[in-house]
Structures are given as structure tokens and as C-alpha cells.
Amino acid sequence: DRSGIQLALDDNSGSDRNFKISKFITVAGVYYVRVKHHSSTGIGSYAFVSHFTPNNRPDTISTAIPINPNSTTQGNIEVANDKDFFKIHIPSRGTLVVETTGVTDTYGTLLDANGRQIAFNDNAGGLGQNFKISKLITAAGTYYVKVKHSSATRTGSYMLVSHFLPDDHANTRSTATPINPNSTTSGSIETAGDEDWFKVIITSAGTLVVETTGSTDTVGELYDVSGRRQIGYDNDSGTGTNFKISQYLETGTYYIKVAHRSTSGTGNYGLATIFTSGSTTSGASSDDHNNTQDGATPINLNSTTAGDIETAGDEDWFKVVIPSAGTLVVYTTGLTDTSGVLYDVGGTEIASNNDSNASNHNFRIEHNVTAGTYYVKVSASSTGSYRLIPQFISSDDHGDTKETATSITPDSNTSGSIETARDVDWFKVIITSAGTLVVETTGSTDTVGELYDVSGRRQIGYDN
């Protein structure tokens, strides 16, 4: 440099026995080149060639190039180890997708307003050797994209493409959209894996019906006040491929989660809720649930359904769909002395019970089942009301929640299986020091992986 301190040297990196130095200059100023013969006694003529390519992109976030959330910007890695910084202002919660196109092998990093890395990608998901980052942005603000070549010594041009999709409804229970028990709300699954959460407050006991409308293939889940215990689930009981859940509820706050049936699907939908306060019966002479298998009332697993034996000899039939092999537990609560019978789809009795124990007049049936439709018949020795509760324990190799995640070591090989449609397997790994964690699957199954922080809610890695 100007003071004579050596910044770089070379012997034979050029053609034949010529030297060639490529050095990224970070500060403008005077620099010097010294040329000599390789041998202390050698002589000879040469041509001295110099070439300078200005760095058109700032190399720090403080001078990053501002771009729009939805834009295409040309860039160039002019010299070895060049880095290009871009600044994007995100107006709301949503999904930001940034990627490059072209033939240059790029590496991308997404940074928050303080310059902390929140996502990165090399070649996974992008076209060819381009990077592609898709990140859920939970808060409006300024974010930065850093682009460099995957090789520290190579150069090349690229196009940086950014695309932002605002999220109409939050992806978590804590930020769920409040709706009324009787309402119609529009929604959209904007990106693959998007979920929309809604919160509804029930002020008196009654039946809540929640369903979607439209052409999007939706799946619906109903949760209790904790947001963790699922009390209702449906896929296609509504019109077309829409879900429809009908559930008797006590007073309290409940949560509805809407998702696309396909983990890669997107689309718009309408969400309708209808609440009817009070008992499902309209009088002592009416029958709340049909007396035959053909007219059985559909119920959801892990739900509570009100019933009433209105007259002597009355029977109430219910239909429940089991998604996979596991254990079905069905029982009643209340003061009525009930009896229960479990039937398969053909109407063959497979289990029955009268009193679960000497001090309890409610029945309880626990039976191992496979995927399919089953029927429950409830009767009683006298008239009276009851609550019917079906619970299901899947024969699942790994838990479906963060709380039931399978513990693994940082260096391990664990077998797994997606046993049913929409099954997910959670794993927990404890990292004791800073370093790089690589997680991947092997085999012929087309898997998607997500890496979460200690809360189990903030996604810090994703790949398909």
C-alpha cells in the first residue's frame, strides 16, 4: 500500500511462469506493484498489464442498495471475495422470497435490521447454482440481503429477484385473528406451509359450526383455550374439498386453524362460523341423535358431543373416522347410566361396555383399531343426558408436536415414517456449543424439513 506494507504477492499464477495477483481493494488510495525476476540472477523483458473493475455494490449494510420488496435488480461479483448488500423495507408480516437467476454460483444471506443472520442458502431450492431464501417475516422493518459468489476466488453477474407476500392471518395462536361466533371471513393460504389462525369467544354453551367455502382444498382444526389440545378436525366434510366441523362447546375461548391439505398448496377461501346456543334438542319428544347406523351423527376425534336419551328404548348412534392404526377410547360422562357398543363399518359389533367401574355408571370402551369408519351406539337403562367423548392414540413412531418430540443426539441416524396423510414427526436435539448442524433425510420418500429454535415456533431453517 501507500506506506509500503505488502498486501499480496505471487509467483506463477499467470500464464506460463508469469505472476498474477487479484486483490480486492477496500479503500481508495495509492497502491504499488513491485516486479522482479524469480531468480536473483535472472534477466528478461515483460509486459506489465493492470486491470481494475470498480465495485458497483457497497460491501457493508450501512451503504446497502435500497430495493423494493417486489423487484428485479442486476448485480455483479466483480472481484474475488466481493459482497453485494441490498436493503429492503418490509411493510407488514408476510413471506419474503429472495433468489438469484443466471449462471453464477451465488450464496445468499438474509439479515435483520441489526445485521444478524436470520436465513441463508447456497443452492437448495434455486435454479441451477442460484440461491433461494423463503422466510416468514413476523415484524415490519428493514432487512438486508447479502449476495456473494460461492467460491471466494470467482466472479460473475446475476439478477436478484425479491418477492413479498403479505400474510392476511397470523400463523400462531398468540396472534390469531379474532372473529365472531357468527361471521364470514376471507382468508388466503399465500405460501406453501402457511397456516391461518382464528380466535372465537363462546359466551354460552352451544354448538359451533365452522367451515370453509371456495375451491381451495382446506383442512380445519379446532383447539381449546390452550391452543394445544385439538378438539375438532376435518378435511372434506364440507362442500367439495372444504372442511366442516360441528362441535358442542362450553363457554370459553377457542381457536381455529386453517391450512391447505397439501403442504405445497396455496389458494383463497372463505371461513364461515355459525353458533347455536343451548341444547341440540328442541323438546322432550324430539330425538337429538338418530336411532340407526345409517343416520349416525358424525363426530370428531378428541371432541365432546352432548346427547340425551329422551325416551325408554332410545338409542343414539355416532360415526367416527379413524385416520390410522392406534387405540380408540370412547366413553361418556354425566349422571345417566349409559351402555356403549362399538361397531365396524359393516355393522359388526367389536366391543361393548356398561359400567367402566363399580362407582361409575358411564361406559368406557378401549379398543385397538385400524384406519376406517367406526360406529358407536349409546343407550341407557333410564332417560337422561350425557356427554360422549372419543379419544384416539395413534401408533405413531415420533410425536406430532414439539412437546412430544423424539430426542436425538447431534450425531445420529434415526428411522422414521410418515404413517398417515398430514403426519408430521418432531425431533429434539441439544447443541452444547457453537457450530454447524446438518440435518437431512435419506430414502425414496419426498420429505420437507424445518428447523426451529428453542421455542419451537420460530423457524430458522427450511428445505424441500
Find the structural class using helix and strand composition.
mainly beta
Side by side, the strands of the main sheet go 1-3-8-5-6
Give the rounded overall mean pLDDT: 85
Q: How many distinct helices? A: 0
Shape: elongated
Give the helix level as a range of percent.
under 10%
The total of beta strands comes to: 31
Specify the oligomeric state.
single chain
| DSSP strand content | 35-45%
- Largest sheet at a glance? 5 strands, mixed
Poorly predicted regions: 280-285
User: Rg, please?
Assistant: 32 Å
**Roughly how many Å apart are the termini?**
48 Å
Please tell me about this protein's structure.
With 464 residues, the chain is mainly beta. The chain contains no helices and 31 strands. A 5-stranded mixed beta sheet has the order 1-3-8-5-6, with no helix packed on it. A 5-stranded mixed beta sheet has the order 10-12-17-14-15, with no helix packed on it. The radius of gyration is 32 Å and the shape is elongated. It starts with 64 loop residues before the first strand and ends with a strand. The model is unreliable at 280-285 (pLDDT under 50).
Which terms would index this structure?
0% helix, 31 strands, 464 residues, 5-stranded mixed sheet, mainly beta
